[in-house]
Amino acid sequence: MMPNLVVDFDTLLTMSGKDLGTTDYREITQQQINLFADATDDQQWIHVDPERAKDGPFGAPIAHGFLTLSLIIPFWGELFDVDGVTTKVNYGLDKVRFTSPVKVGSKVRMNGSIAEVTEVKGGAQIKVNATIEIEGQERPAVVAEFLARFYK
């Protein structure tokens, strides 16, 4: 999928405050949750045991918070890209909150805006306010400040 917005490096430097829009929804499946549990050795029953999770605090299995957070990367690819740079790096996170559980079968999407653009040696760093929303729910699943770097 092509990003909604592609800019060159010089334009990137002027984008502080730019709303990047919202991605399409993605469904969270039990298979995704199980694969994430295997990859991270987090086999807690609220994630991987659908029968037991029915009687648990959420009434169904839920995605790991870090699974939902990791979706920032594919969502980011739907929203934005910088053309004409040599290197693109996920630089980290400044703040992350898991504000609502994501039940298996839920659909999530992300909206983002560029909060800040800072020049760094050889490139630029951006801070993105990213919110992962759950379809049909007022409260989001994740609110994060995502950092990315682009080098010329």
Would you mind describing this structure in some detail?
With 152 residues, the protein is of the alpha+beta class. It has 6 helices and 8 strands. The strands form 2 sheets. Strands 2, 3, 5, 6, 7 and 8 form a 6-stranded antiparallel β-sheet that branches. The protein has a two-stranded parallel sheet with strand order 1-4. Strand 6 (107-120) and strand 7 form a beta hairpin. The radius of gyration is 17 Å and the shape is elongated. The relative contact order is 0.24. The mean pLDDT is 96.
Short description:
The chain is α+β, with helices and mostly antiparallel strands and 152 residues long.
Sequence-ordered SSE layout with sheet pairings:
Layout: E1 5-8, H1 9-12, E2 19-22, E3 26-27, H2 30-40, H3 45-48, H4 50-54, H5 65-70, H6 72-79, E4 80-83, E5 87-98, E6 107-120, E7 123-134, E8 142-151
Parallel strand pairs: 1-4
Antiparallel strand pairs: 2-6, 3-6, 5-8, 6-7, 7-8
